[in-house]
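FAQ: What does the model actually see?

It sees only this:
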Amino acid sequence: MKKIIILLTILTLVGCSNNQEKSRNIFYMDTYINVKIYTDNPNIDYIYDNINNIYKEYDNLCNRYDEYENLVNVYYLNEVLKNDEEINIDPKLSEIINYGLEYYSKTDGLFNIAIGNVSAIWKKYMEEKKSVPSIDELKNTQSININDISLNNNVYKKRNGVKLDLGGLCKGYATEVVGNYIESLGIKKYLINAGGNVKVGEHYNKDKYVIGIQHPENDTLLTKIKANNVSVVTSGDYQRYYEVNDVRYNHIINPKTLYPANYSKGVTVITSSSAYADIMSTYLFLLKPSDAIKLVNSTDNLEAIIYVDENTILKSEGFNKYEEK
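And it is asked to produce this:
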């Protein structure tokens, strides 16, 4: 369920400020990440080093493709750890796995971090770009049953060859940790632009940040929103996909059908937590658009825009309070 990199652009990057603007670019989780901080804190280099280390640590812990010496990460749990063998894991990895487990039930099983065996098959086919896996191949892989994951007091155990995939959660979770770290220093004015994941604090000159949401079918902007102290996350089918016989197959897999969702082309959510936004953008993308909007309208602190096609663009009841006129 690795999240697609979709353009969410911060459009208000210039202007006068009582604090100095500091900026640093880093690359983790297959994403270029820009972090801007407005502060006169003399320890800014130390702060940025810590931000870099946070993203690096979560990138390494969530990595399901690479093994690191003396590190128990997702790769180790998936490929090295034996069935029914217990192992103590890093509390940070334990927290993010527990967060994913919590939202399995809250999303009617559609957000499933145990889908690693199926998403690995789709990754192989996507790289080859020649054909589509059969339903038998997908069903006959090893477990994607969330109950085959056991985690108690940082002790992890798996059954039936189940494999984790934290790609739909890790970037948002790490971005939330970074935002909380910045605010813990008393710094309220900042922005983090991590591809399809944006988190902003207070604006640097008493205005609001303007965030552009890319149109799913061309290089223009679908819309622009103005906000402070929010997270904005997009999931969609228009950057990480392949086509077979003129049918597009994206990377966001429905655990119930075992095939990519195709109800809409893009879903953008607005809420306070980047981790929560990451999960909800995936969840809403997997729902029928009418059901997704009903869910958003009945959920506090959550707004969304869903692009189905040029003739069908759905917005939640409170979305217009953010939309730039």
